[in-house]
Amino acid sequence: MKREVVRDFLNLPGIAGVALMDGRSRPYFCGVDQTLNFQQKEALAQGIRQVVETTPDGFESFVFQFTGHQVFIYKLEHGIILLVLARSQLVYADYLEAIVNLKAALQEDITTAIATFRLLASDVTMSGHNYWKQRIDGNPTSTLDSSLTTGARSFSRDSPTAINPSLPDLEPTATPLNGKQSSSTPPQAPPPLGLESHAPSYAPVDLKELLTTLNHLSQFTTQYLGTAVITNYWKSSRPDLDWLHNFQVDRSAQLTFSNPLAQGTNQPITTEQQQWIQQWVVAFIKRCSQVIRDFPTIVEQRALNDRQKQILLQQSP
User: Fold this and answer.
1) Given 3.40.50.1980, 3.30.450.30, 3.40.50.10170, 3.30.70.330, which CATH number is that of 3-162?
2) Mind listing the pLDDT tens digit for each residue in 43-71?
3) Which terminus has fewer CB within 10 Å in the chain: N or C?
């Protein structure tokens, strides 16, 4: 594990704290231990473990709201749980890159991950470590309990499709991937994506650009539902059309095109083929929204830029 990876992640604007726990040794908190007492930290760790233990198989990460902040939880190998606390200043596009690097670094030697991270993080000063004092008042322990209980119900094995975690709500200082500033008011869900398609009035799309855009959406979505789930959703939502069966989805949720008769990836796709892709994306988003109910909003406002929307989403008249 490289010191630079740990330092760059902890110094990322919007990161308020990190916790690592394995269920055996005492959890390690970085950035929150200055204000949480022992009892509060133990309650937080215990509640999160209960939520993770009741998460359906295939979910590698999820998010919930806690005292006005985002709590990102990731399940690593050997039962290790990574928790990230984020403030509203978080730039989500930068965070996605940083968390991938941190998770990879932690899993280089997962058996010593907590000890190594603790050593490397010990000399990093985090600017946001006092945020707990500003957010927790009165009876912080009861706030912890109510937040975590809600999360545990959301991830009940009895109803895995009813999961409805609070997803990242990036306020005006954050920059979504489409480059537009978010509103401080939670966005309203867009109208359902219809199946009516219209001919595009922009530059033709070739197979290379299409694959790049599909994989961008796929990798973005794995941050919420994990690679195993997303791989399955792409396959199960694909319309039964011969041309679409040329697209292969591997175990890392990466899409490729395998047709020996194709004339290269620079060959433009037809309007009809693009409509088929858009139908597939509509079905894929609908399937994801059965787990994350506001997923269409997430895709519209955070996942895709204007060009990518033109390629993958069916346009209104």
Assistant:
1) 3.30.450.30
2) 777 777 776 776 666 667 777 766 667 78
3) C
